[in-house]
Structure prediction request, 180 residues.
Amino acid sequence: MNAPAAFICLLLLFPAGAGRRVSAQEQAPLRHNPWELILYRPEDADGMNEVRCWLRIEDEDGNDVTYSAAKATYEWISIPGVVNQYERTYYLSGGMAMHLLLKGGAYTISFYTPADKQFGADVQNGGQWESNRFSYDTRNPAKVIFVSPTADGNGFYNGGWHIDYRAPRFWRFTQPKRTD
Prediction:
């Protein structure tokens, strides 16, 4: 890092007045940025990690606004703190977290995998895999939502995606084995 860039980083880390004590009354409350959402796809078992699911965002009128209402970056959970830029499309693979910066408003979020992009999966349902539709409003935001492949009661993937504000019930089946 060159000297001017290092100086700017120090200014951001230690702003003017950083050395003085701040009373509880002066501290601004920490708040979640309502226009930022983390979409997390946990690691899956076997080849399912390689199967991508693509993001679709629709406005209240049903128009696709994936690339006009949102900007996204991603991180691999195995390499935290390294932010990557998407080159073309917004997708998730197993073990990725998407940081989605949305314009204010209400949206419907969903994911899909076309039939010709399901390579590596042991599941072929003959058509495009679709997720449930998740309603998201920046006026009443969630911080993180989970995206996971759907599975039947026996833990076998059945060709679809599930979006929820918490880890799904079938997590016990799809949780990867640790290799420590």
About this structure: The two ends are 34 Å apart (CA to CA). Helices lie at 3-13, 171-174.
